[in-house]
Amino acid sequence: MKFTAQQIASILEGDVVGNPDIEVSKLAKIEEGHEGALTFLANPRYTSYIYSTKASITIVNKTFEPENPIETTLIKVDDAYKSFSKLLEYYNQVKMNKTGIENPSFISETASYGEDIYVGAFAYLGDNVSIGNNAKIYPNAYIGDNVKIGDNAVVFAGAKIYSDCIIGNNCVINSGAIIGADGFGFAPNEDGEYNKVPQTGNVILEDNVDIGAGTTIDRATLGSTVIRKGVKLDNQIQIAHNVEIGKNTVIAAQTGVAGSTKIGENCIIGGQVGIVGHITIGNNVKIQAQSGIGRNIKDNEVLQGSPALGYGDYNKSYVYFKNLPKIVKNINEIEKKLDGNN
Fold this sequence. Notes:
- GO terms for molecular function: N-acyltransferase activity; UDP-3-O-[(3R)-3-hydroxyacyl]-glucosamine N-acyltransferase activity.
- It catalyses: a UDP-3-O-[(3R)-3-hydroxyacyl]-alpha-D-glucosamine + a (3R)-hydroxyacyl-[ACP] = a UDP-2-N,3-O-bis[(3R)-3-hydroxyacyl]-alpha-D-glucosamine + holo-[ACP] + H(+).
- It is a single chain.
- By secondary structure, the chain is an alpha/beta fold.
- Helices cover 16% and strands 30% of the residues.
- The protein is built from four helices and 40 strands.
């Protein structure tokens, strides 16, 4: 798909300096720009590249004035970075604007769906599934019985949504994610073996939730595992049964949250964090990468370490961790001197 400089300027409410009819069909970094590509200049450190870039069009701030000859056509805007981000969003919407139902795919006779949906080849929609307007279900996705999916939701290729789960408006579920698999519930019997505890609940994703590739969210034993509005989960995260995550919380990759833990609103949780079950984490909490959380956390705490300490306490303690061999050596030398004086 090609766009002219004038078309892009119209989208961004910018001004063209150069050839308004020049076309682009790709995006590139300014230092890697080539003919037919669109790029942008926002960071002054990259200014030198605008004089050598081969990109056909470059988005720049209105304050930019070239000091040397340039070949690229300019589109001048108030904020080049924000404008380029806006263009990326627009480009993504155009690229993903698929509609229709591809064959072969399976849609139950009892399923219902809104206008302008897309169902890719080999997708499966079970009994009593309900899908909203403009939703996109990509190839090889599985949508189990009684699942409800809201407007403008996107389920990418190979994602699985088990029965009875509820997906809100504008949610994105990336490839390989599994929503609603059984929680890890087993009870030992008198023979020392483990019997499975039926997991009869579901998963609820509220509006504007993003789920990364390979992330798993288990259904509740009873009730619901709930991911509140605006939550963003990275790739390869494990959310156990009956967990609740508050709105606008973000969690980085490879974090695991054990069952029945409640995480507050607006939290920021780094990668590879481990959180035990049946605890409560407050609002606005920040947890550094690779921390281990084994207790309730109050609002606004900042934590690091395993087991996690207050961030300031951890940094003070780390000074001693690094110097521990020297400290032990000094203590041994003092003990020898004391023993020699006795």
